[in-house]
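Morning!

This is the sequence you dropped in the shared folder:
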Amino acid sequence: MMYDELENPHTATVLIKQRAIEYGADLVGIAPMSRFEGAPKQMDPRYIMPAAKSCIAVAFRVLRGSLRGIEEGTFFSNYSAMGYGGITYVFMPTAVVNLCKYIEDHGYEAFPMGHQSDWRAIDNEGVLRRGFSRPVSPDKPAPDIMVHLRIAAYLCGLGEIGWSKMLITPEFGPAVRVGLVFTELELEYDDIYSGPQLCNRCMACVRACPGKCISADKSVKVTVAGHDLEWGEIDTEACDLAFRGAEEGPGNYLPGKNNYRPNAISPFYQVPPKVYTAGKAVCGSGGCTRACLASLEARNMLTRKMRQKFRRNKPWSVDWSDYDANATNTGGTVGINTKLDTD
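The structure's back. Tokens below.
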């Protein structure tokens, strides 16, 4: 094992950030574990690694091109596969695991964290799940702890928390996904973001969310590392439905259920299958990501400039007024020539 390379905090910070970018991350920020002081017991990573000194947040951009097909209404799977599932379950885990290997090769413990929320002891509202797990001792939280990835990224200086509760970065807006590394290695730490205010409460996210999941007037307020944060109250159940392109009503849009139909942002008669075990992002993050991205770009807030603007057409919707709740995926190819010329 080598020990010298990471013994100096400044040198170690430079090398780790360099490695993170080489492994595929687009943004890297680092925070001391003390910034988690005051976190709810079930969301405090210091219970996972009590000797940890540093939290490293890496952000991976969602390619704007992966959202293009949904903007046009013609190609939905690329965002679900490459912009959502691929980053969540393939690209980002590979990067944070390799970063941990690099740190542990120098004698310091490190553990990678991604979107590992399936085992969490709390539900989407922060309430302990009944009959799920119990603490191994009275002084510890119930397993598994859930670390809020976006809040951790905020603490590491990558951006701010917008009204939609999304992490908004000055480079890519809300079109990022976050992974974390916690380590016993002492590093130099980035300041919490204090640049130009990115979210101006324009409420584009509220208006464009297909599930009406983000409240325009009710908010959640928390204090994190001495900074006051506020975001719109989120209806997580409505988000879960809209995410898959569903709405309540007679229909068989969701397999095994007869009380959901496709909503106006789904062109599918039945919800498509999963990719990378998850990522049925049929809604294309229409409010929290795409509408926000268009708003930020219209206000010239993004530091990463593109040759053409993101939003080029008026947002579309699907007319399901003739939807047959008793049909079983009968209309997918009606009137469409699906024969392919392979010669």
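Headline: Residues 330-343 have pLDDT under 50 and may be disordered.

More detail when I'm at my desk.
O.
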